[in-house]
C-alpha cells in the first residue's frame, strides 16, 4: 500500500518542469525543477516580466534539453506536453517543445507546436507522424495554454483548457529516433524553425492528464497570463560597437575584448562548458572593455558571453567560443638566466638587442644573426621577443660553444638554432628573415659573408637589416655600392643603421575575393611563374580550424607581405614570406560567410590593414599586430548588416543587406552549394551601396536604386560598376537572399563615379533567365566590363566601360553541371578572359583559347600576370598546376590541393 501510494502521488506531478524565469536560468543553463533534464540555452537570454518568461527571437534562440546522441528519460507509453506560449510570428512548421525527426519517409518522435495560426500536436508510434491541428486559430502576441496528450490510443489537443481536437490514428508506444529534445523551435536533422515569441513554462508528464486536470491547470495559471507580453528591448551583439572577440595573449591567458555604444558596466561569463561557471564583473562605465581569462589549458574550448545592463537586469548576449588549440603564444623566457659570463661582450650584446628592438619594433617572425659568434646577441634577442633566431657562423668552434651555452639556458632548438656553414652561401630559402643582425660586426667591426646573400634571405616589404658596431659613416660604406643599396632604403637610428628591404619588383597582391576590387581573379604578379616556383614554407594554421572545403568559403588574402586566412569564425594574420602567425582572433558565429559565388567574401585588405565585415559594421585591423584600429557602422537608414565590402585608394565600400541574408550553413551535402536549385543559387543583393573614408569613417556617398547583385560589383578605373534589378515585385522582399525570377527583370548595368557616387551612365540589359542563373559575375579590366553567367550553359557579354554599350557576346556549353563545372568565375589574363573551357579576346570576343587544360574538381581558376593556377582533382593524381598562357606550358606541383572554390591565390612574388 505504501509503495502504491507513493507511485500514485508521483504520477500527479510532472516528470519535467521548466519555468523560464530569471531565477531558473543561469545565463545558459535552464533548470529542470522536476527532473534531471537541465537545458542549454542557445542564443540570447532575454527575460521578461509579468509573467516571468523567456523571449525567443525567431533567429537562433532555443533550449536544448538533450542532444541527439544523449540518453533521454522521455515518456514512451503515455504523454502530456503542456506549455504557456505567445507566438508573435506564425510559421508553417512551428515548435514549442518536442523531440522528433521528420524526413518524409522517416518520421519519429513527437512535437507540440503550431502550423500557421493553429496549434498542433504530432506523434508517431511507427510509420508517419500524425499531425493533430486545433480547430480554432490563435492570435499573435497573446498568451495561450496549449496541451497535447496521448493515452496509448488517442491523441488530444487542448487550448486554454478546452479540447480542440482528437483522433485515434496512433496506437502503442511512441517511436523515437536519436533526435534532439528542444524547447522553442521545430528541429530535426535538416530543419530548424525557431519560435518568435514567448514561453513562460513547459511541463512534461508520463501520463495523459484528464480534461478536468487540464482545465484546472489552465484556471490556476491563467491569471498571470492575462495581459499581452510586452516586446522586450532585445540586446544583440549590435549593441556592441566592436566584438566580442578572443585572443590568446600567453600560453596560459586569453583576453576577450568588446566595445559598447555607450559607457556602461558589463560582465563576462566564461567556462570550459556551455554552462559558463565563472564570472568577471567590470563595474567601470566605459565604452572599451576587456577581461582576461586565466588558467588556459591546452586542447580546451572556452565558452564566453558578454552581459550588458538593461533596465536593471543583465542581458547576456549570444555565447561564443574560443579554442586553445589555436593558442600560438610562445612561452615567456624573459626570466631565463643568461648562460654567458656578465662581461663586456654580453653587456654590449644586451644593449644592442634592446636598441635594435626599439628601433625596428620587430618581435615576431625569424631573425638571422649573420656571423653569430658564440650566440650572445642571438640569446639577448630571443629572450626579449617571440622571434625564432637562427645564428650562422663559419667557425665550428664558435658554433659548438654557442650550442652548449644555449642548451644550458634551455632554449636551444626551440628559440635559437645555430648553423655552421659558409656565410656566402646560406641554405635558407629566399626572402625568409624579418630581421637580420650581425654579432661579428657588433663585436669585431667587420660584416662577414656576401652582401647579395644577405639581401636574398631578407624579407621584402619591410624586412630590416640592423647594423651596429661602427660609426654611421662606416656602416653606410657597408651598404654603398652593394646589392643592399639597390634593394633597401636606409635610415640612421641612434648608433644603428637600418636597411629596410623594398617590395619585390613586379610583385602583385590578392586583396579581394577575386584578386582586386575589379574582380579579375588576377593578382597581376609578374614574378609568379610555373617554371620558377619552389616551396617557400608550409605549416600552420592547417585544416583543424577551417570550414569544410565544400562550403565555397572566402579565399585568403595577401598584400605587402601579409597573409590573411579565414577559418570557421576565426582569422589568422600571418607573414606571407615565412608563415609566422602574427596574430589570430576567435570570433562569434556571425563572422562565418560561405557560398561566396552567390554573395562574396567578408574580407578585403590594403597594404597595411585587414577589413572585416561582421554583423552591422566593418572592422579595420592592423596587418602587423592585429590591433583593432577602428570599426565602422553600416551606412543604412534601415536595420542592416554590412554585406559587400571592398576598398580602393582611400575609400572603403559597403553594401547593406537584411540581417540573416548571408549564407552561413556548411555542414552536410545540402550545403556544398553545387546544385542548380535556388536553395544554392539565390543571389545576395545589397539594398544600397556606399563609400566612406577608411581613415575617419566619414560617409562620402550613398547610392540607392534597385537590388544590387553583390557578385557584380566591380571597382576600377575611377568607377564603381554593378548590375541592379529594378523589379517592383522585389521592393518588399523580407530577405536580401533573392531566389525570385523577378530578380532578372528590369536589369540595368550601372556606372558610378568612385569618388562622388554620381551616376556616370546606366544601361538596360537583358539576360537569359531560364532556368534561374546559377552564377552571375561582373569583372572590369581596362575598357571592358565582362558579364559572365550560367543557366544551362555559359554566357559571356562584353560592355564598354565608357558608356555601357555591348561590344560582343558569346556562349558555350559547360563541361558538367556538378563539381563546379557550371559555376566558374571568369579569369582575365593579358588580352583574354577565360571562361572555361574557352578564352575570348577582350577587344572583339575572338576565341584565343579552345579546350583549356582538361581538369576535374570544383575549384575555380585564378591567375597571376600571365600564369593561370588551377587544381586538376581526379582523385588519383589531382594536384596544383601552373599554366603559362603565353607558351602553353604546364607544370604540376605535386602534393597540394585546393578547396572547392578558391584557396589557391598568388601575390608577393
Describe this protein's structure.
The structure is a single chain. The relative contact order is 0.06. This protein folds into four domains: 214 residues, Sandwich (Jelly Rolls), CATH 2.60.120; 90 residues, Immunoglobulin-like; 158 residues, 3-Layer(aba) Sandwich (Rossmann fold); 364 residues, Methylamine Dehydrogenase, Chain H. The longest helix has 17 residues. The chain is built from ten helices and 63 strands. The strands form twelve sheets. Strands 2-3-4-7-16-9-10-11-12 form a nine-stranded antiparallel beta sheet, with no helix packed on it. Strands 1, 5, 6, 8, 13, 14, 15 and 19 form an eight-stranded antiparallel beta sheet that branches. The N terminus is likely disordered.
List keywords for this structure.
single chain, 909 residues, mainly beta, Jelly Rolls, Immunoglobulin-like, Rossmann fold, eight-stranded antiparallel beta sheet, 40% strand, disordered N terminus
Amino acid at each position: 500500500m505504501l509503495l502504491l501510494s507513493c507511485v500514485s502521488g508521483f504520477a500527479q506531478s510532472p516528470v519535467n518542469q521548466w519555468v523560464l524565469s530569471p531565477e531558473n536560468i543561469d545565463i545558459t543553463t535552464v533548470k529542470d525543477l522536476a527532473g534531471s533534464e537541465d537545458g542549454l540555452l542557445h542564443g540570447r537570454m532575454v527575460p521578461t516580466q509579468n509573467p516571468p518568461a523567456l523571449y525567443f527571437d525567431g533567429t537562433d534562440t532555443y533550449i536544448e534539453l538533450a542532444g541527439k546522441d544523449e540518453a533521454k528519460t522521455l515518456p514512451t507509453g503515455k504523454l502530456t506536453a503542456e506549455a504557456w506560449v505567445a507566438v508573435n510570428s506564425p510559421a508553417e512548421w512551428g515548435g514549442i517543445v518536442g523531440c522528433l525527426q521528420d524526413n518524409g519517409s522517416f518520421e519519429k518522435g513527437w512535437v507540440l507546436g503550431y502550423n500557421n495560426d493553429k496549434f498542433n500536436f504530432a506523434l508517431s508510434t511507427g510509420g508517419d507522424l500524425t499531425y493533430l491541428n486545433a480547430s480554432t486559430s490563435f492570435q499573435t502576441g497573446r498568451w495561450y495554454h496549449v496541451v497535447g496528450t496521448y493515452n496509448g490510443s488517442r491523441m488530444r489537443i487542448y487550448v486554454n483548457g478546452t479540447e480542440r481536437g482528437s483522433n485515434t490514428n496512433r496506437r502503442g508506444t511512441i517511436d523515437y529516433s536519436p533526435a534532439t529534445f528542444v524547447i522553442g523551435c521545430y528541429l530535426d536533422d535538416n530543419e530548424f524553425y525557431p519560435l518568435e515569441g514567448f514561453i513562460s513554462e513547459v511541463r512534461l508528464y508520463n501520463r495523459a492528464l484528464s480534461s478536468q486536470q487540464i482545465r484546472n491547470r489552465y484556471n490556476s495559471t491563467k491569471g498571470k497570463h492575462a495581459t499581452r507580453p510586452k516586446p522586450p528591448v532585445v540586446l544583440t551583439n549590435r549593441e556592441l560597437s566592436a566584438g566580442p572577440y578572443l585572443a590568446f595573449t600567453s600560453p596560459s591567458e586569453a583576453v576577450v575584448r568588446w566595445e559598447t555604444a555607450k559607457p556602461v558596466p558589463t560582465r563576462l561569463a566564461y567556462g570550459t562548458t556551455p554552462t559558463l561557471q565563472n564570472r568577471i564583473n567590470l563595474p567601470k562605465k566605459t565604452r572599451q572593455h576587456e577581461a582576461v581569462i586565466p588558467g588556459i589549458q591546452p586542447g580546451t574550448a572556452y565558452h564566453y558571453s558578454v552581459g550588458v545592463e538593461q533596465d536593471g537586469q543583465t542581458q547576456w548576449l549570444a555565447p561564443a567560443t574560443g579554442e586553445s588549440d589555436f593558442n600560438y603564444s610562445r612561452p615567456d623566457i624573459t626570466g631565463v638566466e643568461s648562460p654567458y659570463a656578465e662581461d663586456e661582450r654580453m653587456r654590449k650584446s644586451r644593449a644592442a638587442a634592446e636598441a635594435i628592438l626599439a628601433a625596428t619594433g620587430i618581435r615576431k617572425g625569424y631573425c638571422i644573426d649573420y656571423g653569430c659568434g658564440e650566440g650572445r646577441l642571438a640569446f639577448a634577442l630571443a629572450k626579449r621577443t617571440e622571434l625564432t633566431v637562427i645564428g650562422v657562423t663559419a667557425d665550428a668552434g664558435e658554433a659548438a660553444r654557442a650550442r652548449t651555452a644555449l642548451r644550458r639556458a634551455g632554449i636551444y632548438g626551440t628559440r635559437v638554432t645555430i648553423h655552421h656553414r659558409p656565410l656566402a652561401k646560406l641554405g635558407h630559402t629566399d626572402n625568409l628573415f624579418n630581421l637580420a643582425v650581425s654579432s661579428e660586426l657588433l663585436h669585431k667591426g667587420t660584416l662577414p659573408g656576401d652582401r647579395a646573400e644577405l639581401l636574398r634571405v631578407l624579407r621584402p616589404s619591410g624586412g630590416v637589416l640592423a647594423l651596429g658596431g661602427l660609426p654611421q659613416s662606416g656602416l653606410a660604406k657597408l651598404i654603398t655600392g652593394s646589392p643592399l643599396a639597390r634593394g633597401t632604403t636606409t635610415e640612421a637610428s641612434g648608433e644603428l643603421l637600418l636597411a629596410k628591404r623594398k617590395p619585390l619588383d613586379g610583385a602583385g597582391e590578392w586583396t579581394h575575393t577575386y584578386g582586386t576590387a575589379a574582380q579579375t581573379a588576377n593578382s597581376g604578379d609578374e614574378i609568379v611563374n610555373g617554371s620558377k616556383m619552389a616551396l617557400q614554407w608550409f605549416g600552420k594554421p592547417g585544416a583543424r580550424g577551417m570550414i569544410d572545403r565544400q562550403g565555397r568559403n572566402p579565399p585568403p588574402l595577401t598584400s605587402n607581405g601579409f597573409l590573411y586566412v579565414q577559418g570557421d569564425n576565426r582569422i589568422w594574420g600571418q607573414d606571407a614570406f615565412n608563415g609566422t602567425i602574427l596574430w589570430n582572433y576567435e570570433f562569434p558565429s556571425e563572422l562565418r560567410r560561405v557560398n561566396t559565388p552567390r554573395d562574396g567574401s567578408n574580407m578585403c585588405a590594403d597594404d597595411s590593414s585587414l577589413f572585416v565585415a561582421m554583423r552591422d559594421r566593418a572592422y579595420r585591423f592592423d596587418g602587423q599586430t592585429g590591433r583593432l584600429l577602428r570599426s565602422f557602422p553600416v551606412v543604412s537608414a534601415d536595420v542592416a548588416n554590412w554585406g559587400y565590402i571592398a576598398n580602393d585608394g582611400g575609400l572603403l565600400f559597403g553594401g547593406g543587406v537584411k540581417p540573416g541574408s548571408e549564407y552561413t550553413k556548411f555542414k552536410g551535402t545540402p550545403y556544398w552549394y553545387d546544385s542548380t536549385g535556388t536553395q544554392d543559387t539565390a543571389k545576395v543583393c545589397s539594398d544600397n551601396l556606399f563609400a566612406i573614408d577608411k581613415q575617419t569613417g566619414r560617409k562620402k556617398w550613398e547610392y540607392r536604386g534597385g537590388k544590387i547583385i553583390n557578385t557584380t560589383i566591380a571597382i576600377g578605373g575611377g568607377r564603381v560598376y554593378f548590375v541592379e534589378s529594378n523589379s517592383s515585385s522585389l521592393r518588399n522582399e523580407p530577405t536580401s537572399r533573392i531566389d525570385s525570377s523577378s530578380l532578372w527583370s528590369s536589369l540595368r548595368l550601372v556606372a558610378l563615379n568612385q569618388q562622388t557616387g554620381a551616376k556616370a551612365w546606366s544601361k538596360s540589359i537583358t539576360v537569359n533567365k531560364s532556368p534561374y542563373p546559377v552564377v552571375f559575375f561582373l569583372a572590369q579590366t581596362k575598357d571592358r566590363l565582362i558579364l559572365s553567367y550560367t543557366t544551362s550553359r555559359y554566357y559571356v557579354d562584353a560592355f564598354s566601360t565608357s558608356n555601357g554599350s555591348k561590344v560582343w557576346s558569346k556562349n558555350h556549353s559547360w563541361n558538367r553541371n556538378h563539381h563546379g563545372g557550371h559555376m566558374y568565375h571568369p579569369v582575365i589574363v593579358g588580352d583574354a578572359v577565360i571562361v572555361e573551357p574557352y578564352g575570348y579576346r577582350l577587344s572583339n570576343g575572338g576565341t584565343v583559347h579552345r579546350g583549356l587544360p582538361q581538369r576535374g574538381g570544383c575549384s575555380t581558376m585564378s591567375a597571376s600576370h600571365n600564369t593561370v593556377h588551377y587544381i586538376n582533382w581526379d582523385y588519383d593524381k589531382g594536384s596544383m598546376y601552373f599554366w603559362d598562357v603565353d607558351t602553353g606550358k604546364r607544370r604540376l606541383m605535386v602534393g597540394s590541393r585546393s578547396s572547392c572554390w578558391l584557396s589557391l591565390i598568388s601575390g608577393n612574388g
